[in-house]
Design a protein that fits this description.
With 128 residues, the chain is an alpha+beta fold. The chain is 16% helix and 45% strand. It has helices spanning 36-39, 49-64; strands at 12-19, 23-30, 68-78, 89-97, 103-112, 115-126. A six-stranded antiparallel beta sheet has the order 1-2-4-5-6-3.
Length: 128
């Protein structure tokens, strides 16, 4: 069954997605009119950290063409805010171990040029 992401085409558009299984690269464009920005925070919109983690999850699931979920995070670091007016586009890069297996270990980086927004080390698995 093909994976149907929660936020894609509502909160963001994946403008490009490529990879060979062990390395995945995606270009993301935020949809600034999404209601999450009205509440987080009024007059100073910021992409919530939980949304960043979900976008990483969706990119990995799209690349694997199956639904994966974060089951263990060894480290999540939020370094800079993603403001849709300042960074409407950003990149996601994911390094994977065990692609195609039931459990995948990943390191992800969310960035725009020299600005790093978030890094993550996690374990993803199929949901039974």
């Amino acid at each position: 069954m093909r994976y149907n992401p929660l936020f894609r085409n509502k909160l963001y558009i994946c403008e490009s997605l490529s990879g060979d299984g062990t390395f995945i690269s995606a270009r993301i464009r935020l949809l600034a009119g999404h209601p999450v920005f009205a509440g987080h925070f009024p007059g100073n919109p910021v992409l919530p950290g939980v949304c960043i983690i979900q976008i990483i999850n969706e990119i990995l699931s799209m690349a694997e063409n199956r639904e994966l979920h974060l089951v263990k995070a060894g480290g999540i670091k939020y370094i800079s805010f993603i403001r849709p007016d300042e960074h409407p586009r950003f990149d996601v890069e994911i390094q994977c171990k065990n692609p195609g297996q039931d459990t995948i270990y990943c390191s992800a980086r969310v960035f725009d040029g020299d600005t790093i927004f978030c890094t993550l080390k996690g374990e993803y698995a199929l949901i039974p």
